[in-house]
Amino acid sequence: MSQSNEYVVLGAGITGLYTAYCLINEAKVSPHHITVIGEHLPGDGSINYTSPRAGGNFSCITPDDDDTLEFDKYTYTHLEDLQNNIGGASKGIDHRQTTEYWDVYPGDKKINSLKSYLKKLKVIPNVQLPAGVAYGIKYTTWNFFCPFYIQSIAKYLRSKGVTFIKRKLTHISQAYLPRTKVVFNCTGLGSFSISGVKDSNVYPTRGQVLVVHAPHIQENRMRWGEDYATYIIPRPHSNGQLVLGGFLQKDNWTGDTTLEQSKDIIKRTTTLMPEILDHPLDILAVSAGLRPSRYGGTRIDVQRIDGKLLIHNYGASGHGFQAGLGMAHRAVRLLLKEQQLSPKL
Ligand SMILES: Cc1cc2nc3c(=O)[nH]c(=O)nc-3n(C[C@H](O)[C@H](O)[C@H](O)COP(=O)(O)OP(=O)(O)OC[C@H]3O[C@@H](n4cnc5c(N)ncnc54)[C@H](O)[C@@H]3O)c2cc1C
């Protein structure tokens, strides 16, 4: 089948990949009509490319506004189809058990939403909570081997007929190729600087993580404090990689890592899960990443440029993997609505 560029997804992080996936599987767009453009593509590494640097799992990191609760729920409950479509758990997405502790109760709105869909959810009795913890839950979560998982989704999209172009754009209008009817802007932090968007509400939330070799740890453990986040996240089907974190530093653009932060991460994670030290700590990598945050939250809306559609889908902050399928679903529904109003689109 001949290629065309009717649908362009700008950005090949998890947000852009989920968007291309939903175009095919929800909007029934022919993959041969979809082009993904990105300065960085799955397999690349850069501080300006957040997705390969993520933890990553489904957790309670997200805020409790109605949109984000919906994005989390949609993603959690629809990832199994995606997992099957891309070839199963070995492609870097699988279930694992998790325990989450809060120093301050997260609120009924959040907890009631989680109770409506999380598998095997149990509230931990107060007497079993560690010192200083106000509330805790256990449930079955999703874990992602992020750098490999995004390559698996890209491989699936390519096998269906999606075209990938590696290119840095300086203006959003450059995303309109001959015959392009709609562009999805999934540039993450790039939306801060790309002309035609230049969203000054976009800012980074810096994180630092250690990746260690610890095949004996196969479950997640998270602790949320008022001014810190400590997490232990196994990467599924990764030959025993375990992610230890972390930091949530607002408006910090630094891609460097520090020894001081690494030591702090080791101290906090091994206190939370002493079993990590049942074997000598084998550090494989230390990395920093910039979560694409946005004042006002995720932006998913429609704009018109010279009569053509521009659908924004960015600002996933610390939850692109766990909420991004719901965000993509919303963005693609906006397209379908516009197409109903203007059937030529
Ligand atoms: C330490 C850390 C831990 C995390 N843990 C988790 C977790 O456990 N669970 C979870 O759900 N999330 C987690 N996240 C958050 C997650 O990584 C992000 O939400 C997600 O990666 C954002 O994806 P994105 O596609 O929006 O952006 P990105 O992955 O940054 O992709 C942006 C894309 O746009 C392209 N682009 C940008 N500007 C241009 C331009 N001008 N021209 C061409 N292309 C351009 C880039 O090249 C890239 O392809 C974590 C993040 C960090 C840093």
From TrEMBL:
UniProt-annotated binding residues for D-dopa: 231, 291, 318
Keyword Oxidoreductase attributed: yes
Listed GO MF terms: D-amino-acid oxidase activity; FAD binding
Gene Ontology, cellular component aspect: cytoplasm
Keyword Oxidoreductase: yes
InterPro entries registered for this protein in UniProt: D-amino_acid_oxidase_CS, DAO, FAD-dep_OxRdtase
Cofactor requirement: FAD
Binding of FAD, residues: 50-51, 187
Example GO biological process: D-amino acid catabolic process
Entry keywords, A to Z: FAD, Flavoprotein, Oxidoreductase
FAD dependent oxidoreductase domain segment(s): 7-332
A Pfam family: DAO
Family assignment from sequence similarity: Belongs to the DAMOX/DASOX family.
Protein name: FAD dependent oxidoreductase domain-containing protein
